[in-house]
Amino acid sequence: MIRVQAPSRLHFGLLSLSSDTHWPNLLGEEAVPSRHFGGAGVMIEQPGIVLTAQPADDWAAEGVLAERALEDARRFAQTWPAHVLRPHRLVIERSAPAHVGLGTGTQLGLAVARALCISGGLPDLTTVDLARRVGRGMRSGVGVHGFAQGGFVVEAGQRPGGRIAPLVARTPCPEDWRWVVVLPPWGAGLHGQEEREAFRRLDEQHMDLETTGHLCRLLMLGMLPALQERDLDGFGESLFDFNRRVGQSFATVQSGPYASSPVADLVSFIHRQGVHGVGQSSWGPAVFAVADGAERAEDLAQRIREHFGLQAEEVLVTAACNHGAVVL
Q1: Quick one: 210 exposed, middle or buried, by C-beta within 10 A (0-12, 13-18, 19+)?
Q2: Opening angle at CA 109, ends 242 and 165, nearest 5
Q3: Pair 126, 155 in one domain
Q4: Distance between CA 50 and CA 85 in Å, rounded?
Q5: Number of domains, the chain
Q6: Which of 174, 215, 231, 286 could form a cystine bridge with 281, CB 3.0-4.6 A?
Q7: Residues 265-313 pLDDT 10s
Q8: 3-class DSSP string for 90-109
Q9: Residue among 105, 115, 125 at smallest CA distance from 8
Q10: What pLDDT does 96 receive?
Q11: Share of the chain above pLDDT 70, in %
Q12: Cα(149)–Cα(164) distance, rounded to whole angstroms?
């Protein structure tokens, strides 16, 4: 039996929504090759995913998101000749919730593929190969590269053709920083057909190059060096501004810069507590905040629970995951 443990993913935002093939150069010529999407995020230890796989007479799955895992397994199996991979039984022992902004679909699909690859004695595929076989990484590559390496991840976006975006930067997060992750019961983030329609509308309106320039500055001259220097305030201020600017570009397909008014209230409350690094992960409703140490994070988590009437399991405190998924 093979057991795989994968982290969860916080996504801070995309760098570009333009699907143009070229950007203008200084002479006004459409000459500079452009990229679509791109973005940054961090992998976190909790809530994560733990699943097992073992050969069986027929394909089967049980546990949280069992049907989704089974669909991933069958899709992965169909990428091999019929006799290569025998059926397996999957058990999802633990899983982050789906469609809340934690990248659960990607982490689950990759964990299933990795487990089947090892249990079935298949060639040692790269994480990008696994992602292609289970249909993940079609927009953002943060979760794909995060599954492989963990840490703070930056991917450069896609060129025309839709290949998984390349990893361009990866750095560990300070071990003593803690992430407060709020999973409020305020609906699900956009997914499926609704998400595809949202991106179609966003593609029509474009993210202007000035916004992309601001985001690249905040990322390359703000967040990344602040991580290297363990400058939590500098990292947090850059992260908050980055996340809100991205949200403003999504305002036409969600309720302003955040998924809903309650999410906006939650972000505002955390920011008023003196926490600089706060924002919405992906489509939400998950909200994150980064704090200096476990004690500070636990205090913030308790204040959030009391102020918004949330349950203990709806406000988590976790460390960043500075390694990729592991086989146990």
Answers
A1: exposed
A2: 45
A3: yes
A4: 22
A5: 2
A6: 286
A7: 999 999 999 999 999 999 999 999 999 999 999 999 999 999 999 999 9
A8: EEEEEECCCCCCCCHHHHHH
A9: 105
A10: 97
A11: 98
A12: 16
Determine the structural domain holding residue 112 and report its residue range: 2-172
Tell me whether residue 326 is in a domain: no
What is the separation of C-alpha 210 from the centre of its chain, rounded to a whole number of angstroms? 25
The structure tokens 């991205």 sit at: 246
- Check: CB of residue 114 under 8 Å from CB of residue 325: yes
Asked if residue 81 has a cis previous peptide bond (ω within 30° of 0), the answer is no
Q: At residue 296, what is the residue type?
A: R
- Spatial separation of the C-alpha atoms in residues 124 and 118, rounded to whole Å: 8
Q: Tell me, what's the pLDDT at 36? A: 84
Is the separation of the CB atoms in 3 and 327 below 8 Å? yes
CA distance 135 to 138: 7
Query: Is the CB of residue 33 less than 8 Å from the CB of residue 43?
Result: no
Dist CA 99 CA 282 (whole Å): 10
Q: Which residues contact 198 (CB under 8 A, 6 or more apart)?
A: 190, 250, 253, 254
Q: Which residue has the tokens 């487990």?
A: 115
Q: Is residue 113 included in any domain, yes or no?
A: yes
Query: The tokens of 150 are what?
Result: 């963990």
CA angle 42, 43, 48 (to 5 degrees): 150
Question: Do the domain assignments include residue 324?
Answer: no
Residue 21's pLDDT band, with cuts at 50, 70 and 90, is confident
The reply to whether 110 and 222 lie within a common domain is no
